[in-house]
Amino acid sequence: MREHELTIEELLPKTGWAKIKLGELGVFVKGKGIARSDVCEEGYPCLRYGEIYSTYETVTTGLVSKVSPSAADQACALEHGDIVFAASGETAEEIGKVVTYTGKERAWVGGDTVILRGHGQNAVFLAHALNSDPVVRQKARLGKGQSVVHIHAPDLATVEVLLPPLPEQLKIAAILRTWDEALEKLSALRALNIRRRIWLRTHLFTGKARLHGFTGEWCKVPLSDVLHEHGSKSTGAEEVYSVSVHKGLVNQVEHLGRSFSAASTDHYNRVLPGDIVYTKSPTGDFPLGIIKQSKIDREVIVSPLYGVYTPQSYALGVILDALFESPLAARNYLHPLVQKGAKNTIAVTNKQFLEGKLHLPMDPDEQAAIADVVNASHAELACLDAEIKALTDQKRGLMQKLLTGEWRVEVSDDEEAAA
């Protein structure tokens, strides 16, 4: 069995390494304050609980959010080298995720966090060790709760971690930091891509900004002018798909682990490549349903509860898909058409869905040019996601070897003296 497959209890410290409980390393401080309404454009840097999952990897020298001075007075001060745990999470596996703050700027940390301070270790090494598989398994066992999982300072104090001497910690931290920096750059590029798509949605897709050379008319038209319901049913040979907020149409078996279709799918709606699908079911940020274009290169089928429409052109379908990617745009379009039924169902017929109006370009060449911009943005995002995944997998492999001592690093006399 590989070292990284063992539990922390089964791992034996290597020569010079020690197995130590976090409660023996430093003191735990509970984060406090900083509600979403406290975040502002100008103020002091702050770390919010949710950002541990959504914004940062394992180490950060700078913080993206700012908090007003009055709100900072009610929060917990964040110090250089602090190890910050997320104290709540959706699953046991993610509970207690760690980020360490290595910045010099005065900063604050909000509630639903636990901070390990005064640990006397290399903060970068320790943060990576606390996010490694053997330690994650310990934290998962300590989490309490069902729909929301919590972990508290007394629990974290019992967590054990393998620690090499400081010179070796420093060398391992430097190796892992190389991967962190590459991931941070890719994540920044990804964030720029998302911001650019928001600009496209509010400007290019609305006609406020025009691509060079196009002067054709934009009109406010009902969707029934540009979409039609073809009404094709299953032949029995197609795969059953569902609709995901982030991935669009997805194979039920591949995405959900099994098919939720009826015994007979003869009444299921057939989806052609490029069709627009409306789910008519509330989901997270889309309380009135999700609208997506099929990017599948073959015919598939979906639940008969979904509305399926063929756009006037593939390019127009791309534009509608990109426009309705925004929860606000989807809600603004659907709200006048939809009534909430029993058990939070959505009452709208397939015909009623087409009665709303949108401001759209009428020139097919301009539609195609805008679609090219959208597709290029999606392709760039897919490449960035693939690179991020590849680097994340590489880094995880390194962590499994280096943080368990399965691979040892050589420390020179100079490096030992510098540590």
What's the arrangement of secondary structure elements?
Layout: E1 18-21, E2 27-30, E3 39-47, H1 49-54, E4 59-60, E5 65-67, H2 69-72, E6 76-78, E7 83-86, E8 88-89, E9 98-101, E10 107-109, E11 113-117, H3 123-130, H4 133-142, E12 149-150, H5 153-156, E13 160-163, H6 166-204, E14 218-222, E15 227-228, E16 241-244, E17 248-251, H7 252-256, E18 269-271, E19 276-278, E20 291-293, E21 300-302, E22 307-311, H8 314-323, H9 327-334, E23 339-340, E24 346-347, H10 350-353, E25 357-361, H11 364-402, H12 413-418
Parallel strand pairs: 3-10, 4-9
Antiparallel strand pairs: 1-13, 2-11, 3-5, 6-10, 7-9, 7-11, 8-12, 14-25, 15-22, 16-17, 18-21, 19-20, 19-22, 23-24
The helix tally amounts to 12
Radius of gyration equals 26 Å
Low-pLDDT regions = none
Helix content: 25-40%
Mean pLDDT: 90
| Largest sheet: number of strands, sense, barrel closure | 5 strands, mixed
Total count of strands: 25
Major sheet strand order:
2-11-7-9-4
Written overview of the protein:
Helices cover 34% and strands 21% of the residues. The chain is an alpha+beta fold and 419 residues long. The strands form nine sheets. It has a five-stranded mixed sheet. Strands 5-3-10-6 form a four-stranded mixed sheet.
Summarize the structure.
The protein is 34% helix and 21% strand. The protein is an alpha+beta fold. The two termini are 33 Å apart.
Keyword list:
34% helix, four-stranded mixed beta sheet, 12 helices, alpha+beta, 419 residues
